[in-house]
Amino acid sequence: MLVSGYNLLAAGCSGPIVCALSRKYGKRPVFLVSTLFGIIGTAIGEAKISYNYLLTARIIQGFSTSAFESLIVASIGDLYFVHQRGLRIAVINFIQNSASSLASIICGQVFANLGWLWLFHMFQIFLVVQFVLMFLFCPETTYLRDVRYETDVVADEKLDELARIEEEHREVEVGMEPANIPKKKTFVQELAVYTGVYSQDNMLKYLVGPFITLLNPAACYAVITSGLLNSWYVGSAIILAGIFSGPPWKFGPAQIGYLGAGPFLGGMIGSIVVAWASDPVIKYMGKRNKGV
User: Residues with Cβ < 8 Å from 97, sequence gap 6 or more?
Assistant: First the structure.
């Protein structure tokens, strides 16, 4: 439990830094560097059966998890409209939370039959494959949008002007390229790790920004609800071993792993319901609110 606590502490402390770096330099380099931290931490963990090695490995792995806890949701915001995000976020929450309960069943069997080093050996394989796939097939999703299109934050939206600009950029002949529209990057160009600076603002602004956002009631509610969801799954996974390994149950690693079956099934059912209902509800509420 203590080792996992340090892992969570590292993940929490690195969260604002990960957020700031992604706003400044994009999400792709942060994802790749975070995966490298995971590979390094796992390599330390699989090197030797030692408490100090295990503690060091879990702390470094903690630094690698923040990006995947937060920036994945932000990437969905880059790629999809609001009414298209419900299904994708439900899938992400299922993988991060419910599917982790399934992993505990597998890990319990591996620990009982092969020992804890094999947990790191097997995890390392998936991390290396993940790094390769991310490098090849996960391009940068952060982009610089014309401020005139920031209709959710601009006080004077000037929708008539936007409509006129869109009409000017419309294709008038087959094969003619619209003006001021950049060409799609090639596959090789998308492999670039560094794609420039996406904001000239001071890094301190982005480091403090997440805490200032909590002053907004809607943002604070979203943070609390999503945080409770993640903390419930993680917290239960941590304390299960401490509760059931001692008397009167005296469960072994495999038996403790089987305890994840219930959260996995419950989370799967809940995720299916949320994935099915989220986007229709968003569309319905948008119509009720006159398209806003």
Answer: 229, 230, 233, 267
